[in-house]
Amino acid sequence: MVKVIRIEDFGAKELDVYARLREVQLLNRHEPEKGIFIAESPRVIERALDAGCVPLSFLAEERYWEREMRGMIERCGDVPLYTAKLEVLTRITGYQLTRGMLCAMGRPRLRTVEEVCRGAKRIVVLENVVNPTNVGAIFRSAAALSMDGVLLTPDCSDPLYRRAIRVSMGTVFQIPWTYLGDGWIGTLREMGFRMAAMALTKEAMSVADPRLKKEERLALVLGTEGDGLAESTIWDCDYQVRIPMAQGVDSLNVAAASAVAFWELRDRSQNSAS
Q1: Pair 197, 229: CB distance under 8 Å
Q2: Tens digits of per-residue pLDDT, 46-85?
Q3: 3-state secondary structure 4-38
Q4: Rounded distance, CA 256 to CA 274, Å?
Q5: Given the DSSP bridges, would you call strands 122-126 and 149-152 parallel, antiparallel or unpaired?
Q6: What percent of the chain has pLDDT over 90?
Q7: How many degrees, rounded to 5, is the angle at CA 186 between CA 183 and CA 139?
Q8: Sign of the CA dihedral running 89, 23, 224, 191
């Protein structure tokens, strides 16, 4: 049975996770096993549930949840559902909800690099990509265009930030990912990967170069917005790669560039609906 609690007290402690705690507080770096993230919209929440994420509570528009989402909520047992009118929810969250629902969930166990890379042929590495919108868009493209996993350096934006999850349309729960440690290029090389750095250098080859497509295990390395990859990373990689540009444009936004590169370098041995 759904445990419905109508919101009367805006200061209720149970609503802190939605209304007053910042993303860094939800993350809980000191005790990551106690960390929380917020999933928004029924589709995203359902993908998180399907991935095994554990719901802690729901916050939903009262006129909407019973008609549209009762079945999804009932699968979660007696997890509390807080409800209010849309204008009340907007006051609590600070913005209008996407399709009227949020869900607070416990952060899943972080995979190891070995788990993400096991059996993978195409891996994405993000170095210091700090914009959660870009991180979310990259995950969505990676999932759609047959990348096998995403690895992030520690200074990247958290893929489970609310905006990153929303922009990814929940694909952060569908594609394996984790954080890298020091010496990650050597680690990936020991696993049999060749590294391709997206970089605007004179030595860079076209992303459509046949040599790249022939690599059995390839890691595509993308850098931070603006400055791109660190020089040491560029020169430690096996290839330097760029997307040919026209009209005097030198580069694309990192999220747009990732989609082009993923399409060109995807593992063509995989069956695809396209």
Answers
A1: yes
A2: 999 999 999 999 988 777 676 667 788 888 888 999 887 7
A3: EEECCCCCCHHHHHHHCCCHHHHHCCCCHHHCEEE
A4: 20
A5: parallel
A6: 59
A7: 80
A8: negative
Q: How far apart, in whole angstroms, are the C-alpha atoms of residue 81 and residue 86?
A: 15
pLDDT band at 45 (very low <50, low <70, confident <90, very high): very high
DSSP state of 98: G
Beta strand 80-84 with 36-40: parallel, antiparallel or unpaired?
unpaired
pLDDT in tens, 213-224: 999 999 999 999
The interaxial angle of helices 132-144 and 254-265, nearest 10 deg, is: 20
The DSSP code sequence of 44-97 is HHHHHHHTTPEEEEEEEETTTHHHHTHHHHHTTTT-EEEEE-HHHHHHHHSS--
Q: Structure pTM?
A: 0.89
**Whole-angstrom distance, CA of residue 196 vs CA of residue 176:** 20
